[in-house]
Amino acid sequence: ALFFRRDESPYTVLEAELRGVDPNASYQCRMSADYTEPEWQTASGADLKALRVEVIQKPGAVLLEYRKGQ
Question: How far is CA 12 from CA 4, 7, 31, 52, in A?
Fold first, then answer.
């Protein structure tokens, strides 16, 4: 998922509900606002369905990579 913040936006936090996520499953995920590759972390599907994303830069973007756990 890719989250954007426009140049004129006063909002830094977005509350996103990812579709197609199983709330009972476990997911591997990582979030990046730059070109680094952070470590994968484990999150529940319920957490991803009520996700808070902070985009500090104006304009800016945050990339969320996630995959269902084994």
Answer: 10, 11, 15, 10
Which pair of tokens denotes residue 25? 């499953």
Question: Among 60, 61, 1, which Cα is nearest to 30's?
Answer: 1
Q: How many CB atoms lie within 10 A of CB 31?
A: 17
Tell me the pLDDT tens digit for each residue of 24-37: 999 999 999 998 89
pTM of the model: 0.86
Beta partners for residue 60, in sequence order: 5
Tokens of 52: 């808070």
End-to-end CA distance of the chain: 20
Q: Name which of 9, 20, 8, 10 is nearest 45 in CA terms.
A: 20
